[in-house]
Design goal:
By secondary structure, the protein is of the alpha+beta class. Helix content is about 25%, strand content about 25%. The protein has helices at about 10-30, 90-100, 105-110, 120-125, 135-145, 185-195, 230-240, 245-260, 270-275, and strands at about 30-35, 35-40, 50-55, 55-70, 75-85, 90, 150-155, 160-170, 175-180, 185, 205-210, 215, 220, 225, 295, 300-305. InterPro entries: ArgoL1 (IPR014811), PAZ_dom (IPR003100), PAZ_dom_sf (IPR036085).
Length: about 325
């Protein structure tokens, strides 16, 4: 059928159908999909592409969608590298040690040591002891980082995903009503009687879930979910790791195109069923490098491309401004916070 009389808006349904067919295979191999971005699960023993600390890791995925070429009916595949931050899939106790290493006492103890991202478990037990004078501040700091966290239990035959709501008392003191036996029991004794399981860390606070249940920290794993809120240090690491040269950028996209679990359409059963073919070469477009803009401070001092030693960097020491401001002899400072 001749589609030349149709506008791209008229062909949106066709584009949507083809997009579903071309992304069905990679969707089945992705652990997380958001806004046409696909992220694969991490490998065993690895938390992601880069560890950002505080239980977070930077994952590298890809963005993929179909677009119409401007002014034509030609369909193009927009393929790009995508980075985002996820919580690391790990035992909650490991997450706990990472978080508590950022407390003031953790920074004092481990600050002088290199490549230390986790606090010692014995130190964590000491500072999360209910008898510790600073217990409340330590518990509040932990709750700040783990509230609404999704965790997966290890104690049931069928793992269950929970959402942390609060911190309870220690497993040795936290009680709840055991409906089957119609009695009040501590969390520690419940696991000992029902599961024949002796807790290794009964002095640690229990995790109170949204459904009201109490689960020991040692029996849950952190689920890898996307994280939007990160620290300034993590944001700096993210920018450093995700900033790559154009040559590396091109190679990264080619790797996505050649990965059978991502966008390798030559072995995609859905693309074959629809008799679809996506060219392996990238589209080449004419372009030019814009010259660096000149910055004029005075008639005597100007920043030009010839004066810059490194791209985007220039020396400010000899700079003389046109008319410096006169600093007053009497001044004051008002803090309104």
């Amino acid at each position: 059928e001749n589609l030349s009389n149709y506008t791209p808006e008229d062909l949106q349904d066709i584009k949507q159908i083809l997009s579903i067919a071309l992304h069905e295979h990679c969707s089945s191999h992705a652990a997380f999909i958001c806004n046409r971005s696909f992220f694969a699960p991490t490998k065993d023993g690895e938390h992601g592409v880069w560890d950002l600390g505080l239980g977070k890791a930077l994952w590298c995925g890809f963005y993929s969608c179909l677009v119409f070429a401007k002014g034509t009916h030609q369909l193009l595949m927009n393929l790009d590298v995508k980075h985002t931050v996820f919580l690391k899939k790990q035992p909650f106790l490991d997450f706990l040690c990472e978080i508590m290493s950022q407390r003031p006492w953790g920074k004092r103890k481990y600050g002088g040591q290199q490549n230390v991202q986790k606090a010692d478990s014995n130190d964590v037990l000491k500072f999360l002891d209910i008898n510790n004078p600073t217990y409340k501040s330590e518990a509040d700091f932990l709750l700040k980082h783990c509230k609404h966290l999704r965790v997966r239990s290890q104690d049931a035959n069928k793992p269950i995903v929970y959402e942390i709501c609060q911190l309870g008392q220690s497993a040795s003191t936290q009680t709840f009503q055991w409906k089957q036996k119609k009695k009040s029991v501590t969390v520690e004794n419940y696991y000992k009687e029902y599961y024949s399981l002796t807790l290794k860390y009964p002095s640690l606070p229990t995790l109170q879930m949204r459904n009201g249940s109490y689960i020991p920290m040692e029996l849950v794993d952190v689920e890898p979910v996307r994280v939007k809120k990160i620290t300034d240090e993590q944001r700096a690491l993210l920018c450093r790791y995700s900033s790559i040269t154009p040559k590396e950028y091109c190679k990264s996209i080619q790797k996505i195109r050649e990965n059978p679990n991502q966008q390798y359409f030559e072995e995609d059963p859905f693309a074959a069923a629809w008799n679809l073919n996506v060219h392996t070469d990238m589209l080449t477009l004419p372009a030019r490098v814009l010259p660096m803009p000149e910055i004029v401070y005075t008639d005597q001092y100007q920043v030009t491309s010839e004066a810059v030693r490194d791209p985007g960097i220039w020396e400010m020491k000899p700079t003389k401004f046109h008319k410096p401001a006169t600093f007053p002899a009497v001044w004051g400072f008002v803090n309104l916070l």
